[in-house]
Design brief:
Number of domains: 1
Helix content: 40-55%
Structural class: alpha+beta
Largest sheet: 2 strands, antiparallel
Number of helices: 3
Strand content: 5-15%
Radius of gyration: 13 Å
Distance between the termini: 34 Å
Number of strands: 2
Order of helices and strands: HHEEH
Amino acid sequence: MELDELPPLPTERQVSAATGVPTGTLRYYRHRGHGGPASFKLTPRQVRYRREDVLKWIEQQYEASQAQRTA
């Protein structure tokens, strides 16, 4: 799945497929409370992400890696 194909409220699997980040890593980020894209529970058993939050997180990762290169 490509990033531009992400639905407005993608599932964990869809985010994983679009970003290449394993679902286990996304779960770990959620458990820690930081490190990954913002998520929420749509129902007690359904975790969702907002497309714009995933894209924002990717941009933040890019900016952080660029800052490290120039430091």
